[in-house]
Each structure stands twice: as structure tokens, then as C-alpha cells.
Amino acid sequence: MKTFLRVFGISFICFVLLFSSIIWAFNTFMKDNHPNAHVPVIRDVDDSNFEDIDEPELKKLVRKNNRINMVVLGLDETRSDTIIFVSFDPKSKSADMISVPRDTYYPRAGFNGAAKKKINSAYGDHGATGVKAVISDLFFGIPVDYYVTLDYKGVASIVDSIGGVPVYIPQLMKYDDPWDKPPLHIHFEKGNHVLKGNDAVKFLRYRQPNAGSGAMDRMGDVGRIKAQQEFVQAAIKKALTLGNLPSLATNAVRFVRTDVELQEVTRLASSVVGIDTSNIKMHTLPGGASYQGGASYFFHDATETKDLLIKIYSGETETE
After folding, report:
1. What is the Cα–Cα distance from 169 to 158, expressed in whole angstroms?
2. Which distant-in-sequence residues (6+ apart) come within 8 Å of 221 by Cβ?
3. Where in the numbering of this chain does the Cell envelope-related transcriptional attenuator domain appear (predicted)?
4. pLDDT tens digit string along 211-226?
């Protein structure tokens, strides 16, 4: 018996050490390794275009709520081509997603170029942790607990892992960019499609056709966001029908960088089990596009953004 206990004890200790090492490795190497991750974000508070609102009602709702907030970033090299804020309420099993246009105006002290005042440039200068700070500031200080980043290859792999995503394309989509690396060729005929891999990425990237092609024009980033939201909803519905979210989450983490620790991954996935797609609400950051200094920006509406966040934290939102 003593020998058994000794062997069992040694084996158990080795298992604990091994498992701890796996957790440590995951929590270390799965994080965004951006070289500027510790460069602080300081907003240009003297910029008159950026409106601050002190909102005690929202702060009160945040304090008494246990929502889990994260920002999902679709990366195109050093820029965040897609930015989605996700707020999940584990108690009601409901989620709200706010798509933030990549041209959203966000002036930062010390970054004075026209392109640097767009929110999608923040990732290149501050990494994913910096984007968390930017989104929190844009949303009046509400906490952003986690980030999740993935590139085009990751999107393609995750879509393939659920067997593709069904979409209806109402009009010819055609765009060619021979100077992209690699060259980009998008061509989808009108009708029903099940998009997999790189085709899904092309659908999500599409904004406008080549001149004279007569193909669909999504009228800029806001139109592209609407298509992305419809695609995400279809992908979520498809994933839920597979009935194995923890397994899908484990597969998905291979393609992402995140500060969600390993212990949290399967717990979060398990808490989503049973969610109804009708409880997943899609929104776009309120505001509108206009020019300033020769550059096109999306200027958010601070009052409407505040009202939307209050509705989210009160559980009173509806799909747009």
C-alpha cells in the first residue's frame, strides 16, 4: 500500500505539473505578442470632434451587472479590418454585438496623421490590449474583459470547421485587385451559397465592385458591416445546430490570439450552451460618415451610443 501511495502521489504530482505547464504555455503563447502592447493609449482630449458624456446611469448598471465583454478583431496585417464588441449575459443567456466601423474617428495624442485618427490603426500602435482600452473609452469606461484576434486564415479555418456558412447573395459580386498580395479575385453569382474557407473571407471583405462591372456596391464600410452581421448570425446558428460548442471552441483557439485563459475557454463555451439565436442582437455603432481635412471618417453619435449601452445593460435591446 505504501508503494502504491508513493507511486500514485508521484504520478499525481507529475500530472499536476504537466497540466500546469500546459495552462502556463497556453496563457503565455496564445496572447497577442504585439511589440507595442505596452504603449499607452492617450486620447487627444483637446479635439472638439470627440464628445464625452458623463453617464452615472450607465455606470450604475455596469456595477451591478455580471456581463462578460470582449472585443473581437479581424486583422489585416497591422490594422483591425473588423472590430466587434461582444457583451454576453450568462444569466439570461443573451448577447449583444456592436460592430464598430474601421474608419471610426478616434484621435490619439501624438498620432496626428489622417489615417492614424481612424480606430483601425490603433492595433498597429498599441496591440490588442490597446484596442481594449480604446473601445472601453469609446463606450464611456465600461470594462472590456478580453480580446480575441484572428486573421483571414483563421476565419477560413473556423468556417471550415463548421462545414461552411449558408448565405443568400442578392446580386452579382465581382471585384479584382491584381496588386493585392496575393491578388484578390471575388466573383459570386446571385443566389444561395454555402461559403467555405477563402470564399467566406472574400464575401466578408467585399465592399464595392470594379468600375463598370454592374456588380453589387455595399456603399462603404457600413454596408459591409451589415453583410458581416448577417454572416455572423448564420455562422452562429450553424454552430449551435452542431451541438458541441465546447469542442468547437477548443478547435477555434488554434487560430486565434486571446487573453481568455485556458481555464475560461471551455467554461465560457459551456455557458453559451442553450442560447437561442433570437437572444443574439446585432448593432452598429450609431453615427455617420463625413469628410474632415480631406479624409473620410465615421463619427460616432455619443448620445445614441450611450443610450444603446444603457439598453444593453438593461436587457432591453432589439435587433437593428
Report:
1. 21
2. 101, 102, 103, 207, 298
3. 79-239
4. 888 899 988 788 888 8
Residue range 140-179, pLDDT digits in tens? 999 999 998 988 888 888 888 888 999 999 999 999 988 8
Q: Distance (Å, rounded) from C-alpha 87 to C-alpha 202?
A: 27
Query: What cell does 109 get?
Result: 495624442
How does 109-119 read in b/e, with b if 16+ C-beta sit within 10 Å?
A: eebeeeeebbb
Q: Work out whether the CA dihedral 122, 100, 280, 231 comes out positive or negative.
A: negative
pLDDT grade, residue 15 (50/70/90)?
very low
Residue 288: strand pairing partners: 299
Fold of 31-314: Aminopeptidase (3.40.630)
Q: Please give the backbone phi and psi of residue 169, each rounded to the nearest 5 degrees, phi first.
A: -105, 115
pTM, rounded to two decimals: 0.83
